[in-house]
Amino acid sequence: MTDLPPTTALPTPAETTPDGEAEAKPEVGVGPWEGELPVGEHWDPDLLRDGDRRNVVDQYRYWKHEAIVADLDSKRHEFHIAIENWQHDLNIGTVVRTANAFLAKEVHIIGRRRWNRRGAMVTDRYQHVRHHPTVEDFVQWAEGEGLAVIGIDIFPDSVPLETFDLPRKCVLVFGQEGPGLTPEVHEAAVATLSIEQFGSTRSMNAASAAAIAMHAWVRRHVFQQPVA
Question: Rounded CA gap, 117 and 35, in Å?
Answer without folding.
Answer: 37
